[in-house]
Amino acid sequence: MVHLITELSKYLMIILFALYTYQCFAVLKRKIEPEKQTRKFHQQMVYMFLIHLNAYAVLYFSTKNQDLILFYLMQVVFFIVVQICYLTIYRRASRLVVNNMCMLMMIGFIILTRLSVDFAVKQFKIAIISMAVTMLIPFLISRLKFFRNLAWMYAIAGITLLGVVAVLGAVSHGAKLSFTVAGITIQPSEFIKIIFVFFVAAMYHESTEFIQVVKTTAVAALHVIILVLSKDLGAALIFFIAYMVMLYVATRKIYYFLGGLLCGCLASIVGYYLFSHVRVRVIAWQDPLANFENEGNQISNSLFAIGTGGWFGMGLNQGMPNKIPEVKQDFIFSAVSEELGGVFALCLILVCVSCFLMFLNIAMQMKDSFYKFVALGLGTIYGFQVFLSVGGDIKFIPSTGVTLPLVSYGGSSLLSTLIIFAIIQGLYLLREREEHETEIKGTKKKKKKGGRVSHEETVKIHGTKVQNFD
After folding, report:
1. Would you state the pLDDT for residue 433?
2. Pairing of strands 170-172, 184-186
3. How far apart are alpha carbons 408 and 13 in whole angstroms?
4. pTM above 0.85, yes or no
5. Whole-angstrom Cα distance, residue 454 to residue 432?
6. Which residues are paired to 175 by β-bridges?
7. How far apart are CA 92 and CA 425, in angstroms?
C-alpha cells in the first residue's frame, strides 16, 4: 500500500511542479493583464502547498514518524506567514520572486527531511531566523541612498574578514572555509560576496575611467587571491565571474572581459599544479569509475543516483541517496533526481533560471547605474552558483563544493541567499516607485498642456497613490 501511494505521489508531484514551472515563465509575458497575472501567482501557491502536502504525506506513511506531522504544520505556518508579510508590508514586491523563494525552500525541507530529520529541523530553525532578519532589507534598500557612498568600507570589511578566515579558519575538504563563534559555524565568503558586489557597483557608479578600473580590479583581485590562498576555489571562481560580468557591463569594453578570462584560465592551470585537492577533483571528474574507491567515489555515486532515478524517480524514501558522502550540501541535486526524478529536477533548474531572469530583468530596468550593477552582480552570483552546483553533480564540470541556493543544507548559504532575494525585492520596489513617479509627472505635464487625461490613466495614478510601495 505504501509503495502504491509513493508511486502515485511522485507522478502527482511532477505534474504539479511542471504546472508551477510553466507559470513561472507565463507571468513574464509583457502583455499579460494584471488580474490574470495575479491569478497565476495564486495558482502557483496552490501547486506549491499541494507538492508540500503530498511529499510529507508520503514521508509520514513510509516512516510512521509522528513528529513529521508537527514539523509539516510548522512549515505550513512559516510559509503562510512569509506570504502574508510580503502581501501586507510589501504589496508592490515581486510575487514571482516570493513564490520561487518559498518553493525552493520547500523542496530543500522535503529532501532534507528524507535524508535526515535532525538536519531538516536545524535548517528550518535557521530559515525562521534568517527570514526575520531579512524582512527589513527591502525597505532599507528601497529608501536609503547612502549605500553607494561606502565603496571602500565594503572593500575593507571584505578583505579583513577573508583574511581572518585565511589565518584562523577551520579546514574543511582541504580549504579554509569557516570559523566557529559561540558554537555557531559561519562561512564568511557567503556574505562577503554580497558586499563585494556593492563595492564594485559603487566604484563603477562613481566612474568607469581607466584609473578607476585599475583600482577596482586591484581590490577585486585581492579578494580572489585571499580566497585562493585559503583554497576556497569555488568562492574565488564566483567572485571572479561576478566581477568580470560587472566590469564588462560597466565599461562595455570587450578586451577587458577577454583579458580577464585569459588571466582566469592561466590562474586555473596554476591552481591545478599548486593545490593537491584541485587535482583530486579533476581526476575524479575525468574518470570517476577508474578511481571509485578514492577520488571518484562521490561523483560516481552521484551519477548512479541520477541514473537510477531516471525521468520519474524512485519515489521518496525509495532510493539510496545517503550513499553519496556530501549529499546534504554539495550533491543535493543528485538526491532530488534519484527520488523525485529527472523531470522534477529539470523543473527545479528552470525555477532557478526564472529567478535569474527576473534578477536580470530588474537590472535592465533600473535607471540608477549603482542599483543596476547591484542587481546584475547578485543575479550573476546566484545564476553561476546554481550552474556550479548542478554542473558538478552531473559531471559537466569538476565539483567545486558549492551549495544549491535555498535547497542545500547550510546556514550561511541559506541566510546569504535570502539576503540576496531581499535586496532584489528592495530594488524591485524602487523600480516600481520610479515608474509610478514617472507616470504622475507625465500626467501632470499632459494636464498643463491642456491634454485630455483618460479615465484609465486617472485610476492608475490615483489608485496606486494610496498603496504602500514598500
Report:
1. 78
2. unpaired
3. 20
4. yes
5. 21
6. 172
7. 9
CA 229 from chain center: how many Å?
Answer: 26
Q: Is 397 exposed, middle or buried (0-12, 13-18, 19+ CB in 10 A)?
A: middle
Dihedral of CA 206/212/217/222: which sign?
negative
- First-residue to last-residue Cα distance in the chain: 50
**Chain centroid offset of residue 28 CA:** 19
Q: Residue 300's closest CA among 323, 279, 316, 318?
A: 323
CB 349 within 8 A of CB 316: no
Q: Record the cell numbers describing residue 343, joined without a space.
A: 523531470
Which pairs count as long-range contacts for 58-61, CB under 8 Å and 24+ apart, including other chains? Answer: 58/5, 58/6, 58/9, 58/315, 58/316, 58/317, 59/110, 59/113, 59/114, 59/316, 59/317, 61/2, 61/5, 61/6
What Å distances lie between residue 331 and 322, 395, 448, CA to CA? 10, 11, 62
Cell of 440: 504622475
Q: How do residues 291-348 score in pLDDT, each as one tens digit?
A: 777 777 888 899 999 999 889 989 888 888 888 888 898 899 999 999 999 999 999 9
**What is the distance between the alpha carbons of residues 21 and 13, in angstroms, rounded to a whole number?**
12
Q: Label residue 218 by pLDDT band (50, 70, 90).
A: very high
| CA angle 337–389–104, rounded 5-degree value | 65
pLDDT tens digits for range 372-406: 999 999 999 999 999 999 999 998 888 888 899 99
Query: What would the pLDDT profile of 248-270 be if each residue is shown by its tens digit?
Result: 999 998 998 899 889 888 888 88
